[in-house]
Amino acid sequence: MDFIAFSQLCEHLEGISGRLEMIDVVSKAIPPLSEEELPVFVRFLMGKIFPDWSPLKVGIGPNLLFEAVAYVAGKKKGDVIDEINRVGDVGIALEHLLSSKEQTSFFSKSLDLVEIYRDFEYLARIEGTRTQREKLKVIRKLLADAQPLEGRYIARLLLGELRIGMGEGNMRDAIARAYQVDASLVEHAHQLANDLGEVALLAKTGPDALRTVVIEPFRPVKMMLAQQGTIEDMMKNGGEVAAEFKYDGSRFQFHKTGEVCRIYSRKLEEVTTALPDIVAQLSRATDHDVILDGEVLAVRDGRTLPFQYVLRRFRRKHDIDAHVEQIEMIPMVFDLLYLDGRTLLDEPFHVRRELLETTLRAHIAPQVRSADPQAIEAFYRSALDAGHEGIMLKAPDSRYSPGVRGRQWVKIKPAVDTMDLVVIGAEWGEGRRARVFGSFLLACQDEGELLPVGKVATGFSDEMLAEIYALLKDSMIAHSGKEVTFEPGTVFEVGYAEIQQSPNYRSGFALRFPRFVRLRDDKSVDEIETLEQVKERYKKRITPA
Ligand code: AMP
Question: Where in 347-461 does DSSP place strands (E)?
């Protein structure tokens, strides 16, 4: 497939607002694709370059990209940034700049979808001292060959900014429709393989191929998530529930085959080198090949430390030994997804738990099972007394559903309602905060699109603002006056007094009195509040305490 045809399809999809029409258009574009093109096409349309399990990243920030565009367009980098600020959209701005490009490549040729993927893969694999220079060379060459419309989508793909509304749900349905297979089969295979590109290839072969997918060690699967709920609701149908403490740490997935161990964060980034103490504790506790799901906690003198300590360690790249000595980290394991070659996701939770108890010699999160709401209430109170966030209630007969925030796992915590939203912009602070960002524009998601819902400027300590500045400073895309736009990636948990309908924000809603609660850089953009959930909260008029 020529990349120009792909770009034209993206442009066409951007003009469609109906979900069904979008799925229809994509499902018709799928069947003619070759085996090589299909996975790339599927991932690119969702704005992804590599499979979700893959550790590869192209590693091109806005700065490097703008430098390459400036070179190709024969402009100064400042002019590129001015154009982005003027148009307010990176893709369109680059498209304009490329239409006036002076530096056409010597071997100018039409771009091919799979070749572009290979260039991206090469970018991701460049290492060493000359990394930046080599990366710049590759992007310059790519952009020099690109037609303006192609430039729009290359830029958006590189910055993770495609957002044309083809989220995982729409893509799953388009694949199912294209190959006349059941969407639930596609979904199931996707949960195990964690890459819709590969799943599309299996769907092309047929439903039996989709049924053969298993989990593979060192290909992390998405974490199962929890809904907010009440003990009463979870227990109203009778029967036992499994209750565990809700630890205020950070999620991990641990993979081990023989002597080889790797550990992944909630965003499925590999954090093995940052957590050598956790890896050592877990590998000592079992002789089996396993995939474990759990939470890392920081402790001092037997008390759990705030979750921010754990996140800082996950982020750490240097001086790890010193930190291992300073702050003790321990794993709490609550699920087993794979054991000695066997995928356990479809086994009921109580079976996985029994296997976990015979597989791991230590670090298993305690569990209480009961059909008596009063016993669970008592457990909840004991959890709060012990300083935990609350409890998790899990259905003993439920399967492990990666990436699903369903009713099978329910979190019970005191009524401070918060939302996880992504930071898409900021304003510089004032006075003694003039060198950091002071207020932040936040967005929820709707099938891959990011829609603003409010600005938060309270609840930050100076130390936190400095930490946030360090996280965001390299992802600035554009600025205009005091306002800055970011490549979206950083998630905040915010509290609020009320949700109102509002014409001021594209989501149609605005948070009243939002306040920063904490940094959630363990969460990815895919995990933030959806527009649907914001609407639900508005309808229920949840007014948090
Ligand atoms: P939330 O981040 O508020 O959606 O709550 C879900 C998170 O609680 C999970 O992603 C885990 O990181 C964390 N958690 C703490 N304890 C448990 C537990 N016992 N079972 C499952 N998740 C837990």
Answer: 368-370, 390-394, 405-412, 418-428, 437-446, 449-456
Ligand 1 in reach of 244 Cβ (< 6 A):
yes
Q: DSSP alpha helices (H): ranges in 46-167? A: 62-73, 77-87, 90-99, 113-125, 131-145, 148-158
User: pLDDT digit string (tens) for 470-523?
Assistant: 999 988 888 888 899 998 889 999 999 889 999 999 999 999 999 999 999 889
**Contact 226 CB / ligand 1 (< 6 Å):** yes
Q: Which of 75, 246, 256, 394 is catalytic?
A: 246
What percentage of residues in the chain have a pLDDT greater than 70?
Answer: 97
Of the given ranges (104-108, 119-123, 323-327), which has the lowest mean pLDDT? 104-108
Joined together, the tokens standing for residue 244 give: 């565990």
User: Active-site residue 246, yes or no?
Assistant: yes
User: Atom 1 of ligand 1 has which residue's CA nearest to it?
Assistant: 226
Q: How many residues are given for the chain?
A: 545
In degrees to the nearest 10, what's the CA dihedral of 46, 50, 55, 58? -100
State how far the Cα of 160 lies from the Cα of 496, in Å rounded to an integer: 29
d(CA 396, CA 369): 9
User: What are the φ/ψ torsions at residue 379 (nearest 5 degrees)?
Assistant: -65, -40
> What's the gap between Cα 522 and its chain centre?
9
**Tokens representing 177?**
């429709």
Q: Rounded distance, CA 239 to CA 370, Å?
A: 8
Which phi and psi (to 5°) does residue 168 adopt? -65, -40
State the average pLDDT for the chain. 92
Residues 6+ apart with CB under 8 A from 128: none
Whether the model pTM is above 0.90? no
Give pLDDT tens digits for 303-339.
888 888 888 888 888 888 888 888 899 999 999 999 9
DSSP codes of every residue in 247-297: -SSEEEEEEEETTEEEEEETT--B-TTT-HHHHHHHHHT-SS-EEEEEEEE
Question: Closest by alpha carbon to 326, among 299, 297, 295?
Answer: 299
Is 431's pLDDT higher than 90?
no
CB of 246 shorter than 6 A to ligand 1: yes
* Ligand 1 close to Cβ of residue 251 (< 6 A): yes
Distance CA(144)–CA(142), nearest Å, equals 5
Q: Would you state the pLDDT for residue 545? A: 44
Q: Residue 246 CA: which ligand 1 atom is closest?
A: 16
